[in-house]
Each structure stands twice: as C-alpha cells, then as structure tokens.
Specification:
There is one protein chain. This protein folds into two domains: about 60 residues, Orthogonal Bundle (SP0561-like), CATH 1.10.3910; about 170 residues, no CATH class. The protein is built from nine helices and no strands. The protein is globular, with a radius of gyration of 20 Å. Helix content is about 75%, strand content about 0%. Helix 6 runs antiparallel to helix 9. The chain is mainly α. The structure holds fe (ii) ion (2 copies). The site of one fe (ii) ion has 7 residues, from helix 6, helix 7 and helix 9. The site of one fe (ii) ion (FE2) has 5 residues, from helix 7 and helix 8.
Amino acid sequence: MIDLASKTIGEIVSGDYRTAAIFSSMGIAYSWRGQETLAHACQRKKLSLEEVLDKLGTLLQSPAGRDFDFAYWPADLLADYIVRKYHRYIRSRVPVIKQVLQSLVFSSGREQPMLSQVLGLFEKASQELERHMQKEELILFPYIKKMVPDEKGMRKFDGGHFDGVRNTIWNLMQDHEVEGERIEQIKAITRNFHSPKDADDGYKVAMGLLRDFDHNLRKHLHLENNILFPKALQGGVMGELVNG
Ligand SMILES: [Fe+2]
Ligand SMILES: [Fe+2]
C-alpha cells in the first residue's frame, strides 16, 4: 500500500477505474490533473493520506467490476475506441442538450438566471470540444496509429517531427484542463446537477443530460490524459531512440 502514495492519481485510476469515485468525492480532478502523486494531492487538499490509503485498499481488495483494462490496449485501438465512443457521444448529445437548455432558458430563465449562465458555458464548451476533437482526429491520432508496430514489428513513424507531436499533446492537455474546469463550473452552478423537488420535467431532463455528459467527459479525458497520451509519448521516444 505504501507505494500507492508515490503513484500518480492518473496511474491509480488507470489501474482500476473504480478508484475514480473516491477521487471525485475528494474533489480531485483525476481526469485532467492526474499527474500529481497521491501523497501530494492529499497534502494539497489537506486530507489524511492514511485514511485515503485505507479507502483505496478496501476498494482494491474487493473483486473488480467488468471495466476494460485500457492500460493494456494498444494505443491505436484505444484512439479508435475514444473516437467511436466518446467523440461520437459528444457530437450526438451536444445538439440535444443545447435544445433542452435553450427551451428551459426560454420558459424559466427569468426566475432562474443561472440557467442562461449554464447555457452560455455549455455552448462555449461544445464549440471548443469540437475544435479539440478535430485536432485529435486529424493531427495526433493519425500519428499514434503510425507509431504502433504492425504484425511484422514495423512502424511507419520514424521519430521525425516528434517535437511537434509533443507540443500537440501538451496543447491538448491544456484544453482538457480548461474543459474540465468548465464542466466543474456547470456542476457547481447547478449544485451537482440537482433538480429541486418542484422542478418541471424539462429541468429534470436537462440536469440528467448534463450529469451524464459530465460523467462521460471525465472518463474520456482520463483515458486520453492518463493512458493514451503517455503511451504516445513513450512510443515517440522509442522512435527517436531507434532513429535518432
Ligand atoms: Fe478526445
Ligand atoms: Fe481530448
């Protein structure tokens, strides 16, 4: 258990995604700030490391659920999976959520001005996420596919221009932080996507959709930041070593 303290939050969540719930309850942004060690995160949040280790220990000893072990997936497969599952999800949900929020602002925006704020934040997030996903699909992911050796052990990527790839990854991680903070802001304004007892159906639907979007985005950013991008960096360094 002691070595867990020196592991990064991203490594712990990558090892077992069930730990994400513990970090969420502690207010630790494992998806976009997973680079700090557990010991450091506890210190920063003024939490008892021992208590957190205890909670993690209990959880890790219980039988694991049926989540995929993404850490062992080849990078190209993971990149494809992310596009098919998470990028597709964003593109299909954004118009629906926007429409639900717009009609909610129209019907109840005067009594609840925070709804316009939520709509504004969501619209900004959707624009930025689309731009961000295009960068991944058109620039980074094609590189990742070239880095993975084929059946004969040959790689199409020779390590050239790797500084550019490194910068792209760094920029994408910055985007993750901005979008992570933005969804965090929506979560805070809506008091954790809460619907008051007397809320109408439209309000409840909007909060349910936003909660699902938040959950999905956290997993998406975690898979990229903590698993796919480190794999890409490692693959690129290997290319540099072979050809440098
Ligand atoms: Fe993505
Ligand atoms: Fe991303």
